[in-house]
Amino acid sequence: MVQIEQIAQAILNGDSLAARALAQDFVRSIPSLAEVKAPATLDPLVLAMSAALLELFALRAMQEAPAWTRVVGAVSEPIFLLKSAQTMKHLRVLCETESPEPLRQRGFFAPPNYLEFA
Fold it and tell me: 49-79 pLDDT, tens per residue?
């Protein structure tokens, strides 16, 4: 079974293909997102990304996010989840202004349709 921290780590490593595949498997296999346990990690980036992802998936599925996500803070420096946002001004502005709220509130920036599935 895919763990939320695996998706978070793939995203932070810049492996968008793996992140997308892992996220699809995760969302399909977890009927109640509110029951997902906090990752057993000491890495604050992985923890923040895991919380943001769970809140994003819960928002899109119209479910409650796990209670533990509410106490996880933001990262200290903004992180753009698409490398091209660092060089493409229009994409950067789009990410800064329209990033999904669960990501943005923790300092992660991505396009508005980030990790949406058809």
Answer: 999 999 999 999 999 999 999 999 999 999 9
The per-residue pLDDT for 22 is 97
Kindly give the residue spans of alpha helices, DSSP state H, lying in 30-80: 44-61
Is the dihedral angle over the CA atoms 7, 12, 18, 19 positive or is it negative? positive
Query: Is 51 within 8 Å of 8 (Cβ atoms)?
Result: no
Distance set, CA 89 to CA 12, 96, 103, 105 (Å): 21, 10, 20, 21
Give DSSP secondary structure letters for 72-109: ----SS-EESSGGGGT-HHHHHHHHHHS-HHHHTTTEE
